[in-house]
Write a structure and sequence with these properties.
The protein has 476 residues and is an alpha/beta fold. The chain has two domains: 386 residues, Alkaline Phosphatase, subunit A (3-Layer(aba) Sandwich), CATH 3.40.720.10; 54 residues, no CATH class. Helices cover 28% and strands 10% of the residues. Strands 9-8-10-1-11-12-6-13 form an eight-stranded mixed sheet, with helices on both faces. The chain has a two-stranded antiparallel sheet with strand order 2-3. β2 and β3 form a beta hairpin. α2 runs antiparallel to α3, α5 packs parallel to α10 and α12 packs parallel to α13.
Length: 476
């Protein structure tokens, strides 16, 4: 049966932070491996286990409304990055070439993350947090927005991060199909083209919106950094444009990456992320262009949180770049991440899987390329399965799966609220290096001391305003 991708005029992607599929959606169908209609669903049964430091078996269990600090689980920031992911999958940082992952090292690795945080007095770990808390999983009752959208439209239970490491490389794959060999967050810049530049080459519009600050993604690639300022804005700008029915072919949304924000990065307030998903959905659902829109909600990586599914090892290397650690060849995917496909052209209760190949972040690139007849960016997105076949309805639905649902709110705040997040620090460093001449034409800027999230936010806004003014002057 033909899909309805040709009817889609607007693809909108919201990418959140650092959660695994099991942690957010594993209990979507109440511990069953099938949906209510009997379709296969690779969630949690409660029989999935890891061993703690004493050799005791700890099973995956549910976070409930009575769980202390429910919206701040697992209670500390798990280990991220290439080597921590190896520990979680293989129980060693340097697995042998023929080693098979067992997903058995999550509790021991989480203990190391807690110990490291406490030893360095970072203040992110909530009192009472235990290594076994990495096996606590959210329930539909705690995540009513995500759960209703997953049941009311489509959930992907086999969507994997593009690379088994942390945020910045995975976000690079999401926009460019490669991280150019980089495997950690300390990336100075990427030099490759992105999907945004590819759209511009084909005279197609696009936008990137930060939540309440200029978007970090703008500083990732030459074709975004040098793009006209009209391509960028804040969440309120997204809402205004959506309300007019005038969104471009592709819109990329960022959350607020701060500790007080809505990115859902551990251990920030998960309820705020529920509110953001609700805001995005409601904005699009009430838009005059809703019938022609596909909303994709994803996370960049698993962030050290438990998932029971081992990542496939059949990834296509995007290019000739060799990974900066252990000569990694980019042929292994990262762990599963939560992913929702939302459109009135999707049948309710869908569990979407690729017929061939493995869905990863570059499947969004493939879908955009397929819809608007664009050339692929790398070998990875060229090989990626498209998401088009999820769009099975010729006529848009009129029902609203979020009708009557109220987003949750938590009763506490993140303990280290004013401290800058890692992505905020990366963002500040990048904008400090922008080639903005002073009044005498010199590139003499030095980043000042920035000790709080608020200071970083003001600095980013000021530097990007100066960059916009510089671009407008040079582009005249």
């Amino acid at each position: 049966m033909a899909n309805s991708l040709g009817n889609i005029k607007h693809i909108v992607q919201l990418m959140l932070e650092n959660r695994s599929f099991d942690q957010m959606l594993g209990f979507l169908y109440d511990g069953k491996r099938t949906t209510t209609s009997g379709a296969p669903f690779d969630g949690l049964t409660g029989d999935e286990t890891n061993l703690d430091e004493l050799g005791k078996t700890v099973a995956a269990s549910r976070i409930t409304a009575n769980t202390a600090n429910a919206y701040f689980k697992p209670g500390a920031d798990p280990g991220e990055g290439f080597y921590n992911t190896n520990m979680q999958l293989y129980s060693t940082m340097h697995p042998a070439a023929d080693a098979k992952p067992a997903n058995s090292g999550f509790i021991s690795n989480f203990k190391s993350a807690i110990d490291y945080d406490l030893a360095h007095h970072y203040g992110d770990t909530l009192p009472g947090t235990q290594p076994a808390d990495i096996m606590l999983m959210y329930t539909p009752e705690l995540l009513p927005v995500m759960s209703a959208l997953a049941r009311g439209y489509a959930v992907c239970d086999q969507w994997f991060a593009s690379v088994p490491t942390q945020t910045v490389p995975n976000r690079a794959f999401a926009s460019a199909g490669t991280s150019q060999g980089r495997l950690d967050n300390h990336v100075k810049s990427f030099t490759c083209p992105s999907i945004f530049g590819r759209l511009s080459e084909n005279k197609l519009d696009w936008t990137i919106y930060g939540y309440n600050r200029p978007p970090l993604t703008r500083t990732d690639f030459p074709d975004t950094l040098q793009a006209d300022p009209s391509h960028f804005g804040l969440f309120a700008d997204f809402q205004r444009r959506a309300n007019s029915g005038d969104l471009p072919p592709y819109t990329f949304l960022e959350p607020d990456f701060s500790a007080s924000g809505n990115s859902q990065h551990p251990n920030y307030d998960v309820a705020k992320g529920e509110q953001l998903i609700y805001q995005v959905y409601r904005t699009l659902r009430d838009s005059p262009a809703w019938g022609d829109t596909l909303l994709i909600v994803t996370y960049d990586e698993h962030g050290g949180n438990y998932d029971h599914v081992t990542p496939p090892e059949n990834a296509v290397a995007p290019d000739d770049a060799v990974g900066e650690f252990d000569n990694f060849g980019f042929t292994r995917f990262g762990l599963r991440i939560p992913a929702l496909l939302i459109s009135p052209r999707i049948a309710p209760g869908t569990v979407y899987r690729a017929q061939t190949g493995t869905i990863d972040h570059t499947s969004v690139l493939k879908t955009i390329e397929e819809r608007w007849n664009l050339q692929p960016l790398t070998q990875r997105d060229a090989a990626a399965p498209s998401l088009a076949d999820v769009l099975t309805l010729a006529q848009p639905r009129n029902d609203d799966p979020l009708g009557g649902i109220v987003p949750p709110r938590s009763a506490m705040t993140q303990p280290n609220l004013g401290a800058p997040s890692e992505l905020e620090r990366i963002h500040a460093w990048r904008v400090s290096k922008l080639p903005i001449p002073d009044e005498n034409g010199r590139m003499a800027h030095v980043q000042p001391a920035l000790d709080t999230s608020a200071q970083i936010g003001e600095y980013i806004r000021d530097r990007m305003a100066a960059w916009d003014a510089h671009l407008r002057k040079t582009h005249r």
